[in-house]
Amino acid sequence: MKFCINALLMTVTLGFVGEAFSMNIAMVVWRGETIAEKGFVGELNRLGHHPAIDVFDAGQDRKQLAYILRQKLQPNLNQYDYVYTFGTTVSETVKTFLNGVRPQIFNIVADPLGSSLVDPKLMGTGNIIGVTNTVPADRQIANARTIMKFKSLAIPYNPREINSALIIGQLKTLGREQGFTVLPIRVRPDENLWQEDLKPVLEAQSVDAVYLPPDSFMISKADIVVPLLNNARVPTICAVAQFIKHGCLMGTVADYETLGKLAANIVDRLTKGESVSQIPLQFDPEPIFKVNQTLLKALDLAP
Length: 303
Known about the structure:
Elements: E1 24-29, H1 35-46, E2 52-57, H2 62-73, E3 82-86, H3 88-98, E4 104-107, E5 128-132, H4 137-144, E6 152-157, H5 162-178, E7 181-186, H6 194-203, E8 209-212, H7 216-220, H8 222-231, E9 236-238, H9 241-245, E10 250-253, H10 256-271, E11 282-283, E12 288-291, H11 293-298
Parallel strand pairs: 1-2, 1-3, 3-4, 4-5, 5-11, 6-7, 6-8, 8-9
Antiparallel strand pairs: 10-12
Helix pairs in contact: 1-10, 2-3
């Protein structure tokens, strides 16, 4: 099925683009379309490109992602001008798949350097450049510690997600420097198991706070996870806006729509003749520190 996305991002299609549009983009996403994709498409239209886009949703399933790449994208790759990818898992997998034959613009990748998606100077490399959603861990922790001086920090995470492991490493290093301990909690991405895995966090008396990382599985359960932690009176520090939406105590977060617009501007720069290697990694220049004041008072943390 062919379609052109105008002002808003519309429904998922696994069809293929036609030749009637000036720009054809394959959009490979991990957990459905987000506000980042809306920002991406809206900004491309504002810039006058009006692309045709095919959306491929892996549904947080590596086997489905492999199927999409082999059976849907590979036979039609020469029809696409650019490939947009969402998240660390998808972006790394697509990078290997493309091997540089098409420009890849990644978005919502927590650690592009650690994931080898950019070079050490944080510039585009190998026909790949994009946008990170990460607000540096030291900034997040510094802001959080203005609210509470925690000594122990639990991090529930899906062990299959690369960026979660990378962030845990960063927080452990920060903890050694600032005097708090980090307790990683493995949460299996299984509907019948994940809440059982979360129990140590809910029941632990020695944990001062919980850090919810930019982990796709945990984000997909934000509407359940955050209320569970709030009911257990566990303070939460959240890395992405979705957790804030569902009542997280505090977090310094990037705006997904802004990140989508930044990704669109990369495409615009490429169409104007810049090479990938000339474009630096993009990030939200003005992340916001948000605090749930009502919850702060309920947890007896307000000054």
